Amino acid sequence: QSVLTQPPSASGTPGQRVTISCSGSSSNIGSNSVNWYQQLPGTAPKLVIYSNNQRPSGVPDRFSGSKSGTSASLAISGLQSEDEADYYCAAWDDSLNGWVFGGGTKLTVL
Amino acid sequence: EVQLVESGGGLVQPGGSLRLSCAASGFTFSSYSMNWVRQAPGKGLEWVSYISTSGSTIYYADSVKGRFTISRDNAKNSLYLQMNSLRDDDTAVYYCARSSSSFAGVDYWGQGTLVTVSS
What we know:
The complex is a heterodimer.
Chain A (H helix, E strand, L loop, with lengths): L8 E4 L5 E6 L11 E5 L6 E4 L13 E6 L2 E6 L8 E9 L4 E4 L3 E5 L1
Parallel strand pairs in A: 1-9
Antiparallel strand pairs in A: 2-6, 3-4, 3-7, 5-6, 7-8, 7-9
Chain B lengths: L2 E5 L2 E3 L5 E8 L8 E6 L5 E7 L6 E3 L7 E6 L4 E6 L8 E8 L6 E4 L3 E5 L2
Parallel strand pairs in B: 2-11
Antiparallel strand pairs in B: 1-3, 3-8, 4-5, 4-9, 5-6, 7-8, 9-10, 9-11
């Protein structure tokens, strides 16, 4: 059971916009910023959003993030087949003194 | 280019020990806090341990506290994870991950090393 809650799956057709949610509590998302990671099959995770809504260089502007209270979301617009991957949210937890992750959302591009 | 290369994984019996290493290059290792994160087969990511730049601050997940020890050697640009009293549920790919110096979070990950605990 992950500390942060994500839907196990999401899907969309090419060109569509999809959103992945991440729910936490006051000790993690409620008091710290959220980061999002993309994990392609058989590879290491890659940072796609940091500090709630910032994109690292090289990440397409189709990726965006937001946070409100104890929840956060990742949006991918203009969906492409290469976006098919697992996505994880993460935040520092002040009570656990450690990083907590969501269980991951498998994004399928139909 | 930031590079993190893990080594030391393998097959070990329950109750056994293993030491993982992570060789860092492409950045000033001593200026960055580091982490170990693991992923059981077909499962999600689980943070394991954190160590500050000097090693003065260390945190562990409850699941490994008392069994795993994180350490670093800044002169050798290396991060370590000593794993003792290994259990079946420690089976996972173990990633070495760098904490960013500009935001709260991990910015780079190694490719991981597989640890299998089985009799």
